[in-house]
Design goal:
By secondary structure, the chain is an all-alpha fold. Helices cover 67% and strands 0% of the residues. The relative contact order is 0.13.
Length: 118
C-alpha cells in the first residue's frame, strides 16, 4: 500500500510538470514495460524493432501526454504506458513496412527481403 501511495504521489507531481517524478515513475515500471513491449513485438512477429526503442519512444510520448493520465489504481500507470507502447509498436510496424516497400515497376534489389524471399 505504501508503494501505491508513493506511485500516486509521483504521478501527481509528474502531472504538475515535475519531469524527475515522471522519470522515477517510468523507471519503477520499466521492467514491466520492457516485458510487455517484448511480448507484444513477439505477438506481432516484429523482428526489425528493438524493445529498447519502443521503451524510449513510449517514455517520450508519456512525457508529452502525462496531463491526460488518470490514476485509477496501482496498475493504471502500467496500463496507460502499455497503451502508449501499443501505438509506438503500430507506428514502428508501419514504418518498417514502408521502408521495405518497393515502388511499382521496379524489381527489388537482392538485399531487400520480400515475402517470397522470406
Amino acid at each position: 500500500m505504501a508503494d501505491e501511495s508513493a506511485h500516486r504521489e509521483l504521478a501527481a507531481r509528474a502531472q504538475a510538470g515535475d519531469k524527475e517524478a515522471l522519470g522515477r515513475l517510468v523507471a519503477t515500471f520499466r521492467p514491466r514495460l520492457c516485458a510487455l513491449a517484448a511480448s507484444r513485438l513477439a505477438a506481432h512477429s516484429v523482428r526489425h524493432v528493438d524493445v529498447e526503442e519502443i521503451v524510449q519512444e513510449t517514455h517520450l510520448r508519456a512525457c508529452r501526454a502525462i496531463a491526460r493520465f488518470a490514476w485509477e489504481g496501482e496498475d493504471s500507470f502500467v496500463r496507460w504506458l502499455g497503451g502508449i507502447a501499443d501505438h509506438v509498436i503500430v507506428d514502428a510496424v508501419r514504418k518498417g513496412i514502408k521502408s521495405r516497400s518497393v515502388p511499382l515497376g521496379r524489381e527489388p534489389s537482392a538485399d531487400v527481403e520480400t515475402a517470397s524471399r522470406e
